Amino acid sequence: MKFLKSCDANFKDELKILKNRGNLDMSKVMPIVQGIIDDVKARGDESLKEQNLKFDKHTKELEISSYEMKKAYDEISTNLKNALNLAYERIKTYHEKQLEKTWLHFDEYGSVLGQKVTPVDRAGLYIPGGKAAYPSSLLMNAIPAIVAGVKEIVVCTPAVGGEINNLLLAALYLLGIKKAFRIGGAGAIAAMAYGTNSIPKVDVITGPGNIFVATAKKMVFGDVNIDMIAGPSEIGVIADESVNPHHVAMDLLSQAEHDELASSFLVTPSEILANKVKDEIYKILPNLKRTEIATKSIENRAAIIVAKDMDETVELMNELAVEHLEIAMDSASDYLARIKHAGAIFLGHYTPEAMGDYLAGPNHTLPTGGTARFYSPLGVYNFIKKSSIISLNKTGFDALSRACMDLALAEGLEAHKLSVEVRTK
Asked: Hey, which family's this protein in (predicted)?
């Protein structure tokens, strides 16, 4: 892993590399993805079945039956049922606070202005299933849609060998999902974007995936809405010597075990802590079940940065704009106001990122690769749309008509001006 000091002569170059970690070279896969999209649009379900045989090695039915979902829910342990239900309630309670309401305003002329909030008719959720199964991702994507009032939710997930993780099936049952399908990759995105005989066309697609999924989402955007272009997971930790180095090491590794391309960063003004955390990481790594994945991530995508002071520590982490940001310090809340760019912020010694992944309440579908500079976490707002409301009475119309006609004439739009003028006579 990289061990950097902000005073190093080449530090700016190294920081630039870290900041560019989210650059996905989509150019190489775009022709492949476009071919898949075109084939799904042309041949629908037949194309999807061929993709399942080619990529996931199975010929099972596309649709996941409600029987499979209920059977899985009945079979999981009481502890897992309780955990799923606890996560459901906490995530739902949090997202209910994001609900926006339709509003009306009466101006000084008595005219009515406002905004109407309406859920989309149908949402498509992509739930990855490559290196691991993610029932938590299903909860995080489905619950905001349910809270928003979306009437129909469509779920697509890859099924290697035709099999789907039992806990994912159980979560589908708990959420009351009626339409779920065994299909992954770009084919799933194309199916939800354009529809097939089995899979209905949706209005918005959310959920993370590999580069083929990310590229497909980018290519169908405009025909449907999307949440964001999500890349590999990442974590950043700001810490001082009040933290336990073993805890920081574990939190960094919690992201490294996701994916070889996951990124883990520690920024601290303490070189003593930096060295202790590095030592802890290499002690823990060999004992992890996913040690091969985590080791590649740590060796190629991780960095420990020693800053000159805490002010620079915060500045550097804002530049990195990480997906998950832990402020692991006694005085963590003192720095909250100074954090400008982060997908989710975890404060204090007892708030590991893993809690946010499962059941703290906020969404774990977050902007990656520095896109926290302009993207927000997935939320209820991804599943609604807004319409403006305008109703002018004659008093309001008369008060505004002259200025409106002047602006229309200035833009050279005569019919605009005349559509107002005919009402003044």
From this structure: Belongs to the histidinol dehydrogenase family.
